[in-house]
Every structure is written in C-alpha cells, then in structure tokens.
Design brief:
Layout (H helix, E strand, L loop, with lengths): L26 H14 L4 E3 L9 E4 L9 E11 L3 E8 L2 E11 L1 E7 L5 E7 H14 L10 H11 L1
Antiparallel strand pairs: 1-2, 2-3, 3-6, 4-5, 6-7
C-alpha cells in the first residue's frame, strides 16, 4: 500500500501544512494503515511524508505492544528540559544508518488525535527521542541535519 521514501527525495525537505480535519480523509483508517506499515517495516515512528503523503501527522508505537501505537496530528512541543541526552537513532528513510543525536531528555507536547481532539502528554527517554525525530520530519528536517558532517560520515562508513 505504501512505500518508504528514501533520502534525498525532496518531499523529506518540505515542511508540512497544518492537517485540516475537514478534508474528508478517514483519519482512523490513516492511523491504522500507517501504524501497520510502520510495524511491518520494523520502525517505531513514521511521518506521513516518509510514505509520500503531505499531511502533518506521524505515528509512534512498538510492535510488541501495537495497541499502544497512535497518530499525532499537528503536534507541538510546549516545553522541553534543559537536560540533553545523546541516543542512537535510525530512520526508515535512511536504511541501515545509525548515529547518536543530541536531543532534550524530556518534552511536554500537545497534538490532535484522529478525531481532531487535542491531547497533551510528556515524553521521556526513547519516546522523547522518537517524538522529536518524527516532528523533525514534519518540519522538513532529517536526522542527518542534527549531527556534524564528521559524525555522519562515520555512520555511513559503518553502514558499508
């Protein structure tokens, strides 16, 4: 149904517009399909533009607890800690490339669910990293942009 868009495809560099809940898209179906595709691809996060859709939405979840997976429409970071963590990240749009990226250790965010209702929550550790990685995709930022050229080149050498 979907295909992963890989870097350097231009769609990965375009900031996505606010999702309009009046556009007649079945958002529950979109959430389910994106989650299933992400699980099948062994991912923990997937932004719409990674599968060629220009919607401001991403999904997050873990294959071992699929019922906890969900979509985040129009996500916004409200606040973040000053404490920074450096964790390894990978990306479905950069197959087999892993690099340590520095990000806040925790954030508070809000988003709309598939019904268009606003929700709010806090994310820490791995979930924080994933949320921020996927939010970057919606802004046209890829994880390559978050590290030095030296660090990126080392990650690509390890990939080979």
């Amino acid at each position: 149904m979907f295909n992963i868009i890989t870097f350097p495809n231009d769609i990965l560099r375009i900031p996505l517009p606010t999702f309009d809940f009046n556009n007649l898209i079945n958002t529950l179906e979109l959430e389910k399909n994106m989650l299933q595709f992400m699980y099948d691809a062994n991912g923990i996060g997937l932004a719409a533009n990674q599968i060629g859709l220009s919607y401001r939405v991403f999904v997050m979840g873990h294959k071992d607890n699929p019922e906890l997976g969900k979509a985040f429409f129009n996500p916004i970071v409200i606040s973040c800690t000053e404490t920074i963590s450096e964790m390894e990240e990978g990306c479905l749009s950069f197959p087999n490339t892993y690099v340590k990226v520095k990000r806040p250790s925790a954030i508070k965010a809000k988003w709309q669910n598939y019904k268009g209702e606003w929700e709010e929550g806090e994310f820490r550790g791995y979930d924080c990293k994933c949320f921020l990685h996927e939010l970057d995709h919606l802004e046209g930022i890829v994880f390559k942009d978050r590290v030095s050229n030296l660090k990126w080149n080392r990650a690509n050498k390890r990939k080979r």
